[in-house]
Amino acid sequence: MSRDALFQLETGLDADPSTAQTEETHFVRYDPEMGEPRKDFFCEREGARYAGTHLLIDLVGAERLDDLEHIETALRDCVYAAGATLLHIHLHRFTPNGGVSGVAVLAESHISIHSWPEYGYAALDVFMCGTADPNATLEVMKRAFSPEKMVVKTELRGKELERWNGGSKRRSMTASASA
Fold first, then answer.
1. Which of 16, 41, 62, 149 is the most buried (most CB within 10 A)?
2. Banded model confidence at residue 156, pLDDT cuts 50, 70, 90
3. pTM of the full predicted structure?
4. Is position 19 within any domain?
5. Which residue among 129, 146, 176, 178 is the active-site one?
6. Is 174 inside any structural domain?
7. Is 78 an active-site residue?
């Protein structure tokens, strides 16, 4: 495979949904335009409704952060472990330090990586909606990069939007600015 090419991938990486374990609730809504139920990829946990879970991950004292093929394999393994659907992977290696930046684009959102191998440091984002489990990627990253330390911050994206919590949907939002 070409190192700097954008790859179109098959989407058959779904995990068996009957084995998924989650504390989140997912919704099926009636879509009047389509005349049928449709899956709503919003989540609910402890009464909060939100778009998806976003993990901000710092790997400290990590290994193989300049190995493009290893990073691609690790991203694919993360996608599989999370039960997500891979659409594309794009990775780029920088010279002279060999750092890698890239993204796995998912039907459920994305996983991104930016590495500084000379410092043994990588910053990763894992953002997923629907039934995909972003927390399942953490063990994969530990095995793949052997970090001395892993710092994880979790954000529930979109929970601030009252219209989601109230259940109404609008096609677009009008932004306004006031002086």
1. 62
2. confident
3. 0.69
4. no
5. 129
6. no
7. no
Task: Enter the DSSP assignment of 108.
Answer: T
Question: Position 163: which residue type?
Answer: R
Q: What does the alpha-carbon distance between residue 160 and residue 115 come to, in Å, rounded to a whole number?
A: 31
Q: Is residue 96 included in any domain, yes or no?
A: yes
Of the residues 109, 112, 115, 146, only one is catalytic, namely: 109
* Overall size of the chain counted in residues: 179
43 assigned to active site: no
Largest CA distance in the chain: 56
- Type of residue at 10: E
In the block, which residue shows the tokens 């997500």?
Answer: 84
The CATH number of whichever domain residue 144 belongs to comes to 3.60.90.10
> What are the tens digits of pLDDT across the range 84-143?
999 999 999 999 899 999 999 999 899 999 999 999 999 999 999 888 899 999 999 999
Range of the domain at 132: 52-155
26 lies in a domain?
no
Q: What's the domain count of the chain?
A: 1
